[in-house]
Structure formats: C-alpha cells, structure tokens
Known about the structure:
With 423 residues, this protein is of the alpha+beta class. The chain is 24% helix and 27% strand.
Amino acid sequence: MFIAVINRSWAGIASxxxxxxxxxxxxxxxxxxxxxxxxxxxxxxxxxxxxxxxIISNGEVTAWSLEKNPETGRYETGSALGSxxxxxxxxxxxxxIKRKASGWILVELRAKEGTRMTxxxxxxxxxxxxxxxxxxxxFPLNPDFRLRGxxxxxVSHDIYLTPxxxxxxxxxxxSDQGLSAASLTDAYAGMESAFGLQAGTLQLPPxxxxxxxxxxxxxxxxxxxxxxxxxxxxxxxxxWQSIEEVLKESEALIRENGYFSVTPDADGDLSVQSIxxxxxxxSEGLKSEFNSASVVATLDEVSIRTQAYYTEVAGSGSxxxxxxxxxxxxxxxxxxxxxxxxxxxxTRMNGDSIAMGELQGYEIVYGHTADTLDNVxxxxxxxxxxxxxxxxxxxxxYFAVRxxxxxxxxxxxxxxxxxxxxx
Length: 423
C-alpha cells in the first residue's frame, strides 16, 4: 500500500492510499514493503466498507478481534475493537478501530430499529405476499438480521458485508481451527469457487443494482451483487417468508453438513443450483431497468456466465466445501485486468476531517511508464473506492489515483503502483 505525500494549500485534500490487487495473468509491483511501516506509525485504523443485500441503511456495524482459545486451540470471536457505527443511506460505513489490531478480524452488521434494506429484485420483492415491495423501494429488517465478513488488516482496510461473506465466515467457523487465518482464507476462496466467481471477487464492492446507470466497475462486481440479490429472490411466500429465514437456513446447512450443497436435497430447495437459477433470471430482468448500453452489455455478460454455471451445477450433484472439492471449472479470461483499490482521504491539510459528502470522486491515471500516465478514468462517486481496468495489453502498466472534492480541489497523485501483464 502506498501513501501519497500532499503538498497543497492548507485546505487541500490530505492523502489517497492506493493498492493494486493482481487479477489474471502476470505479476506486478507490491505495496507490502512499505505498508507495514506505514501501519506501524498509525495510531488507529479506519475500516471502509459497505453492507449490501440490497443496500442496508441504518445498520449497526461492529468489529471483533479473533483470538485463539487456549483450551480448544480454535480461533473464536474475542472482544469488540471499538464502538459500533451506523451505515448511511448507501450502506457505507467508516469504522474506527480504537486499539491496535492486526491480522484477521471479524466485522458484523446487525439490524436495529429503523434498519432498512433496498429491494434489488425485479419486478418486486416478496412476490405473492401482502408485503410485496417494488424494485428500488426499501423495507424494514427483523431484529435478528445479520451479515458477517472478515478482513486481513495486513492486506486491506476495506470490507464488504454480503450473504456470501456471511456464508464464508460460517464455513470457516465450522472448521477444526475455527476462525483462523488459514480457515478464513480457504473459506473465502471456497465460496467464490462454489458460486463460479473469480478469485478475489468477495473483496470487491458490490454495486447497488438499483442504480447501475453510470456504473464503471467490473463485471465480476456486478455478478457478485446479482448472486447476493438472488438470496432475496427466493423469498416469494411459498417456502421462505423473509430474507432472515433464507440466510439462517443457508448458515444452518453449512453447520449441519460442513458445506453448501450444489443441488437441492430432499428436504428443501436451498442450494447453489437454486440460487444460480434466480441469479440468471435476475440478470435478464435487470436489463429492462437501465438505458446505459455499457450496463446492458455488462448484464448480458453476467447472464451468460450465470446461465452457463447454472447448467453446469444442475448436472453436477456434488458438494462444495473447499477449492479442492468443487464442481467449479475456471476458464481463463482473454482480457487482462488490474483491480485498483484505494482508501478515501479522511482529513485535509490543516487536520480537519473531510466528509464523504465533500468528495466529488476520483481520477485514475495509468500508462506504460511511471512518467507517462496518459490514460484517464473518471470516477464520479466518492463511495466507489475500487475499479477494474480491463483489456490491458502485454507489458508493464503503472497506475495512480487522485481525489477531487466538490470545490474542485485536486490532491496530488498517490504513489504509483504497477502490474506486469504477460500473454
């Protein structure tokens, strides 16, 4: 992770932190050499993230340490790492960790009075019930609703809480080592593999499916959002009455069997197959909601992916519990990509905090040399802190990011990160 040094007026934006997640073939520059020293000099950590199954507003988010039980040798939830925070209307949160923390931690969202979820299912959620909610409208969550996720602070300070991240935590929780670093790493990879997602997809910020016009992120992120939305699609009044029931039964199946079944069993319809079928239908239905050609093209690609994977798992009958016991086959992509992730600046040069509402967005610049960053991508959303650049040709590529506030002040570029694309 690289921290830009800012030399601007006292009212300027303080800093942008940029990292590069390597996706596809090729190696690249790494931030590991400087990130440890940067974190060591930091008194506190701020987690940036979001909660989405659609957007979850006014939810309570808490971070927890993961500690080894000396009697069992298993890693379990320990103490709270600071006070809870509340998600905003876009499901975003910034969670300060008030005491030193390192390695993997657990992050949990719980519903409270006033917590609401956006319906991201077309044409509506809860079809066939008296409580049907139109696409884009919100509905209250029950007090027992929760989402969980885990993040390795040595790698990232960003986390996104979704149904799939919750299932990954449950998967790790049931392992011999409990919530250890190895178990969580395997569980996240296993959940991506189970649902036909590219490695690293669960670390991407899923977009709001209600507001895709203007979205410029990766197809993988949209696919992730649609699969998460499919859990809500299952609530139609005939089998499950609420999203809470679907998620609880999903976690219960993993605890009981040690895995999430690919195909339905005799007692129920919850499986990878049923969720992928809902995702395929949803990706098709969403296309009628948007007029952006690029968004429709992305939804077309997601539809192709989900239908192909549904066809694959429908004829499978195996179970999924890890990357080594999976029905997934990964087809290498032709396009070479680089996924950039950055932290929103927290202060101005005079030390005053800068709110998300004061940020206009970001600019990504990149090129074949560190001195010639002549390609520009504009991100018109302060809450978007990751972007995948696709179709990179062979060779070395260099990337940097700068922040822009609503007054037009522009921060200097972050430090440059790089990736080598090979054929």
